[in-house]
Amino acid sequence: MVTGTAQQGQTLTATPGTWTAADATFTYQWQRCDATSGNCVNITGATNQSYTAASVDVATVLRANVTATNSKGSTVATSQETGPIVPATVGSHAISVTQVSLPNRLIVDGVKFAPTVLTSRAPAVARFHVSDTRGFSIQGALVYALGLPYGWTRNSPEVATDTTGWATMTISPTANMPLRPGALVIDMSSSPPAMARDHAKRLAGRGYLDAPVSGGTIGAAEARLAIMAGGDPANFARAKRLFAALGHATLVGPIGSGQLAKLANQAIVAVTIGAVAEALLLAAAGGADPAAVREAMMGGFAESRVLKIHGNRMILRDFTPGGSADHQVKDCETIVATAKASGLTLPFAEQALAMFRGLVAHGGARLDHSALLLELERMNGKKLGPGPETLPA
């Protein structure tokens, strides 16, 4: 096995494990592997038991081949892979924008307004979170905020993200917007359905679609986002070529329906993450191998992308964020509020909200939402498996 922190500048150590031959001697060869394809190459000169991760290793995974030799011959074993190597840290949470290079890109993966719904004409505060396509929060990125809600403008030309990856700016209402009649506005943020309907009213005489997405950073990088659109069919037809460059779009109903579909999507994701965490912890507590249990279920009725991707994250204890826990709290709060406004009680969504709030309260705000496992482990005093967690920088 390999011990140590999967981070640039940190030293990793390969341990031989248990061998039956008492007179064995060991040699080592470290390898660098592509995190996506799994292709591995030997690292030149990395033949000691320990290896210090370098800048070239960032976003790859590392492993070691251990050769045991005695008088009867030799045998080779390969260690488990580390989690993706993260860059050296800057500040307390984020990495510097200077540590991001192609093929990685910057994305705005979180937007918050205070007040939450911009219905008054008083100045408000807008916050934008920037990460790269690996999920690392970014310090020092400049945010211009061109995509503010209709009728609002920023008070400063640009704001840099801080040590947590957030940029904060004051925004104010404006009387006139340079938007010609017949223009089409597409809001791809995740927000309450009522906000989408309010925006459409303010844009009278112009086309409007609310079109939030699902698929995370992986779907964005691979242009296979699921796009849930609400609005007029004619406006949806106008936007189809744009949507095709991003993924697959479906018109799900009138204005506000896109946001309702996204809430339904997030309800399924939140509840299923909790169910997968409970199932794997149950299997482990009873003496089964949780990795083998997950593999067995992948061919059955419980198979899902959450089980495939997030179940594997839980087993590897890799909680580098794709979708973060604090964003899941925001979505669950909107789900519960929208349900109550419709006269519904959604007990599973409410319990998921309580669990994710607990994870955030115990320091997991910027962890991947699959880290809900940690909250479940904390409640039970038992862990799914050994080993340290891979956490964001």
Element layout with pairings:
Elements: E1 2-3, E2 11-14, E3 25-33, E4 40-42, E5 50-52, E6 61-70, E7 73-78, E8 95-96, E9 106-114, E10 124-132, E11 138-139, E12 142-143, E13 152-154, E14 159-160, E15 166-173, E16 184-187, H1 193-202, E17 207-210, E18 213-214, H2 216-221, E19 225-231, H3 233-244, E20 247-253, H4 257-285, H5 290-297, H6 305-316, H7 325-341, H8 347-364, H9 372-380
Parallel strand pairs: 8-11, 16-17, 19-20
Antiparallel strand pairs: 1-2, 2-5, 3-4, 3-6, 6-7, 9-10, 10-15, 12-14, 13-15, 17-19, 18-19
Helix pairs in contact: 4-5, 4-6, 4-7, 4-8, 4-9, 7-8, 8-9
Distance from first to last alpha carbon: 23 Å
Strand content: 15-25%
In N-to-C order, the SSE pattern is EEEEEEEEEEEEEEEEHEEHEHEHHHHHH
CATH architecture assignment of the largest domain: Orthogonal Bundle
Q: How many separate structural domains?
A: 4
Class per helix and strand makeup: alpha+beta
The shape is globular
For this structure, the quaternary state is: single chain
Helical residue percent? 25-40%
CATH topology of the largest domain: N-(1-d-carboxylethyl)-l-norvaline Dehydrogenase, domain 2
Count of DSSP strands? 20
Mean model confidence by pLDDT: 87
Give the number of helices.
9
Rg (CA only): 24 Å
**CATH 4th-level superfamily of the largest domain:** N-(1-d-carboxylethyl)-l-norvaline Dehydrogenase, domain 2
Q: Unreliable stretches, pLDDT < 50, 5 or more residues?
A: none
Please explain how this structure is put together.
The model has no long low-confidence stretch (mean pLDDT 87). The chain is of the alpha+beta class and 393 residues long. The strands form six sheets. Strands 16, 17, 18, 19 and 20 form a five-stranded mixed beta sheet that branches. A four-stranded antiparallel beta sheet has the order 4-3-6-7, with no helix packed on it. A four-stranded antiparallel beta sheet has the order 9-10-15-13, with no helix packed on it. Helix content is 31%, strand content 25%. Helix 4 crosses helix 9. It contains nine helices and 20 strands. It has four domains: 77 residues, Immunoglobulin-like; 87 residues, no CATH class; 77 residues, 3-Layer(aba) Sandwich (Rossmann fold), CATH 3.40.50.720; 116 residues, N-(1-d-carboxylethyl)-l-norvaline Dehydrogenase, domain 2.
